[in-house]
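Recap slide: Pilus assembly protein CpaF, sequence and predicted structure.
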Amino acid sequence: MNTGGSPPGGDGAYGGIGPEPSPVMRRGRRAWSSAALTAHTLTGPGDERLLEEVRDRAAAVNGRLSGADLAGAVRSSGVAVGSGSAQRAVRRLQEDLHGLGPLQGLADEPGTTDVLVDGGGTVWVDGPGGLRPAGIRLADPEEVRALAVRLAAAGGRRLDDAVPFADVVLGRYRIHAVLPPVSTGGPLVSVRVRHHRAMALEEALPDGAADAWFGPLRAIVAARLNFLVSGGTGSGKTTLLGAMLSAADPAERLLLVEDAQELVPEHPHVVGIQCRTGNIEGAGQVTLTDLVRQALRMRPDRLVVGECRGAEVREFLGAMNTGHDGAGGTIHASSAGAVPARLAAMGALAGMGPEAVALQAASALDVVVHMARTGGRRMPVEIGRVVQGADAAGTGPGHGAGPDYGPEPGHGPGQGQGPGQGQGPGGRGLGVVTVARRSPDGRLEMGPAAGWFRQALAERSVPPPW
């Protein structure tokens, strides 16, 4: 499946981006050609001719410049092919125009999930070992800006003083760029790397966690429970969601709704639709809310929203309440217990009150799987049952959003953590009661909702994992 552009080749290129280069693309290519060449201090008598020739060819050629294009530019400029400056310029330009430029090698490293460029040119890499300095540096803010403009233009987006931020997808890269004065320390570039290789569920779980978590996660999918994967940024939510979808019945039709394509489940029948940003006037925008509505007309066996973050939660919960079992998605939350508050906030964006959100979510959602970084590894740390009303005020560990009715102190306005708290007065709101969680020593501990989980699986003829 490929809904986000042509996939990269072995050299990291992201391929063509459309039948004709737009004026925005042409401006971006010219700007980047100039920056890439001048970064190599072209000062010879023929260097200006070479610079102008490559500018013109970069603006005219759609997609990547081939070696023949670059050689032709050198010949047309009159610069001797054997000259050192021309050879260096062509080699660097070819690298820069064929992907992420100086960031390409970092993005190609196994396990890299993010490449980040700060305003002064400092580069950081996030991966299995956590966030670390990359050991390379872009020359100055102007080079960072030129890179940002070129990448935005390659995705058909404008990036300049009038439109100081852009979000584009180029093959397996999701790129966000911000220019001053919105970014105070200089231009910023953030690259999220999507790995095309699909993962089976057991592969997505780190060593030492697979034995404990594979069974219950596989059971959630087999029983067609509706679930959300929660976690912070970079906790592995999308990776786990894709791996869980890989465990779905091959006879099912999976319909993925995403802001930008990131999910690549190992499954024979996957259909994806993604958002589209509007132009500078806002025309042509396609939102997640629009896509969820369209997805319901496409006969999904499983409806999946890559990331729930706004008003689309109303349509998503509504779909789960109208017979679309086995639905899944991700949500940003600091804990499983914080999910009810996040859902309430998103429901408010759709004009839903807290009680309406609680009613919809309690009947639509079955479980929350929470992801976190533990010891430098991304892994599940809790499975919780989504409950409402009297169930939200049960006995034993549980979480909820609302006044703190439990014996433990609250954490901020409207947040409480104690036995089975709910949201709002009288426990009428939404809560999460633990099914199982990771203990401090790494073992899997059963929670008060473990019995409900076993019963829910048995009702669907799925053998319990414990």
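Residues 23-38 form the longest helix (16 residues).
The mean pLDDT is 80.
(End of recap.)
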